[in-house]
Amino acid sequence: MLINTFLDTEDFVHLYYPEDEPAAVQGCGAGARMASKYPPRPPSPEYSQVVVPSTSEMGDRERYRAPPQPEPPPHRVRAADLYPRLRTHYDEPGLDAGFTPICGEFVQWVGRTTDGGTIAMSNYRLHVQPRRRNDPGASIPLRLIDVPEIRDLLHLIVLCKNGRQLKCTFTTGDQCIEWWRRLTTALAPIGSVQETFAAAYAAWAKEQPPTSVHRALMRASQSPQRHWFGPEVERLGFTAKGAWRVTAANAEYKLCSSYPPLLVVPASVCDEDLDSVARFRAMRRIPAVVWRHRGNGAVIARSSQPEVGWLGWRSSEDERLLAAFVSACNADRGMQPPNNNKQLKLLIVDARSYASAVTNRARGGGCECQQYYPAADIQFMCLPNIHHVRRSFQQMRTLAAEPSEQANWHSNLERTLWLQYVSGVIRASSVVARAVAGGRPVLVHCSDGWDRTPQIVAAAQLILDPYYRTLEGFRTLIEREWLDFGHKFADRCGHQFGPEDPNERSPIFLQWLDVVHQMMLQFPCSFEFNEAYLVSYSFIIMDS
C-alpha cells in the first residue's frame, strides 16, 4: 500500500543527476556400424495420428457401433491426471462466475452477495462481480490474501498482503461463515511446488490451444534476460584502475549460500582471507561492494553483523578487509578528489540502535569495536526490526479501510508509526548518499544483512545514481540488492512450503516501495516510472 501522504524530507534528500559526476564430426565408429546394421525404428504414432478403420472395412455389427477410442501412450501423463478438473458448486441456480478462467483454472464456488452481485472462487483467484455489468469487478489471487475476517456477522473482510482490502456483504450469517470457511480452506499451506497453481497452469497450457495470455507469458519468458553483474561492473568502472577485483570464491556458494556467485572485493584481499572473514560474520555474509561512485571512487558495501559475542571476539582478516576498502578507494580516486587530501575513514552504518547491537552480543552477534577498526567510524540508524514493521503495517492496513474524512484519521495514521519508519529509512539512505558523495566509503549492515540493509543500500543508490531511476536500472537494482543478495521473500511474504512461522512475516520490501514512492512525490520528473509501476511490483512480489 502506498500512502499518499507527503513526507517533508527535502531537508535531507537530494537526488544526484548525470551532471553531478562524469559519464563514465558426423557418425563414426561402433555407433555408426550399429546404425547401418540395424535401421532406426519408425516413430510411434501420436495420439492424434491413430487411424480409425473406414466404414467399408467394418462388418455389419461394427458399422453401427462407435469406434473404440485409442488409449494414450503409457509414457504420456495428461494434465487431467495430475490436476483433475474441479466441479463448480452454485449456491443458487442462474449464477455466473463473472470472469473467464485461464489454463488450469477451475471455478469451485459461486455465490450471491447482498447487492445482487456475485462472488466466485477458483483454484487461483477470488472474484467479486458487482451487479453493474459495466463494472469489471475485483479479482484477487488466493496467494495474495493474508487472512479473511468476519465482522458484524454479515461482512466478510479479505485482508491482502499488499495492504488491499475487499469487503463482501451477505444476506445471512450462515452464508458469510460458509464463504469464510471456503477461503480459509483454500489458503491452507502448500507442501511443494507441484501444488502451486503455476504448475497446474503449465501442465494444462501444453494441452490447450494457446490463448493471448499464454502467448504473452511465453514471449516474456523467451526474451533474453541480461544479467546485471557484467554490465554493472563495466558501467561503474570497477576494473579501471586495478584497485578492485572480481572474485569467484562463491561460485559454488561455498563461501555464502545467500550471496551471488561473483563478488567485488579489494584487489589486495585474497580468497583465503575472505573465507576467514565469512566465519566471523553472521550467516557468512562478508562485506562485499555493490556500487562505486564514478567521480570520486567511493564505494557502498554491505554485509551482516560481526559475531563479537560477550567475550569480544575479533578477526584480524575482517579488520584488514575493512582497512583495504579505505586503501582501495584512496587508490581509485577519479576526476573528482575530495575537498582535502586527507585519507577519509570508512563509515560503518549500522541500521540498528546501539542498544539492539549490544543486545545481539548475547546471541553471538554485536557490532564493530572502534578500537579494532581505527580507520572506521560507526553510526547507528535506530531502524525498527521486522516485528515492529509488521505490527505497524497491520495497524495501517486496518486504518486504510476507514474513511479518511474522520476527524482523527491522520492522528491515527501517525500512531501507526508507518510513516515514521519510512522516514527513518530515507534518513539512513541520505546519510549513506552524503558520505559517498563526499568521497567516503560506506559499509551498511544490520543483524543478518537481508532486511534493513537492502532498504538503505537500494534507496541510497536511487539517490546517487540516475540510472536506477529508469525502468531498466530499477529492475537491475531489485535483482541485485533484493534477489541476488538473499532477501527472504518466501519467509517475509508467506510463500514458504509447509508450516509457516508468523514471526518471519514482515512487509520489508513493501515498505521499501513506499520509500521509493515518497521520493517520487518530491521528485516526480526524476523517475522513468510512476506509482502504478510500484503497485504492480507489490502484486507480483506478494503473490509469487
Write the layout of secondary structure elements.
Blueprint: H1 29-37, H2 60-63, H3 79-82, E1 89-90, E2 107-112, E3 118-122, E4 125-129, E5 138-141, E6 145-151, E7 155-160, E8 165-169, H4 173-186, H5 197-205, H6 212-222, H7 229-235, E9 244-247, E10 263-266, H8 271-280, E11 288-292, E12 299-302, H9 316-331, E13 346-350, H10 354-359, E14 376-380, H11 386-400, H12 409-416, H13 418-437, E15 442-445, H14 452-464, H15 471-484, H16 489-493, H17 508-522, H18 531-543
Parallel strand pairs: 1-2, 12-15, 13-14, 13-15
Antiparallel strand pairs: 2-3, 3-4, 4-5, 6-7, 7-8, 9-10, 11-12
Question: If you had to describe this structure to a student in words, what would you say it looks like?
Answer:
Pfam families: Myotub-related (PF06602). By secondary structure, the chain is α/β, with parallel strands linked by helices. It has 2 domains: about 130 residues, Pleckstrin-homology domain (PH domain)/Phosphotyrosine-binding domain (PTB) (PH-domain like); about 325 residues, Protein tyrosine phosphatase superfamily (Protein-Tyrosine Phosphatase, Chain A, Alpha-Beta Complex).
